[in-house]
Design a protein that fits this description.
The chain is elongated. Helix content is 21%, strand content 31%. It has a domain of 79 residues: hypothetical protein PF0899 fold (2-Layer Sandwich). Helix 2 links the parallel strand 1 and strand 2. It is of the alpha+beta class. The longest helix has 15 residues. Strands 2-1-6 form a three-stranded mixed sheet, covered by helices on one side. Strands 4-3-5 form a three-stranded antiparallel sheet, with no helix packed on it. Zinc ion (ZN) binds next to loops.
């Protein structure tokens, strides 16, 4: 399960971003592309497993799922794809398409407890 390693890297990145002596991390926001090859549930599980004993202990991981968009150079069109098995242009059938969006796994923001300005609702 490579999500454990990914979760660990996210935690290390977040910890490196916050200043030394800062309050613990409250929230990490991540953008996860549909073609990133990472399971959202497994990543959440990995984060739960890896975050205790780090500055991210007790933090919430918020994952925004980014849909995949592919570009066909022949037709000059962009189109959405649901999964990697559909990496063909729907118009000309060409497999020579470019993934424009959907492979990313990006840590977009890290919030520490001090900077919280509004109530954090707990979403199940
Ligand atoms: Zn095409």
């Amino acid at each position: 399960m490579h999500e454990l390693g990914i979760a660990q890297r996210l935690i290390e990145t977040a910890v490196a971003l916050i200043p030394a002596g800062a309050p613990p991390v409250a929230l990490l926001r991540v953008q996860l592309g549909a073609l990133a090859g990472v399971s959202k549930d497994e990543l959440l599980f990995g984060f739960e497993a890896m975050s205790p004993d780090t500055s991210c202990a007790g933090a919430r991981l918020e994952i925004e799922e980014v849909p995949a968009v592919v570009h066909c150079p022949q037709c000059g069109i962009d189109f959405p794809v649901a999964d990697v098995d559909q990496l063909l242009c729907p118009t000309c059938g060409s497999p020579a398409v470019l993934v424009m969006q959907g492979k990313e796994l990006i840590l977009t923001s890290v919030e520490i407890h001090e900077t919280e300005v509004h109530d954090e609702a707990v979403h199940a």
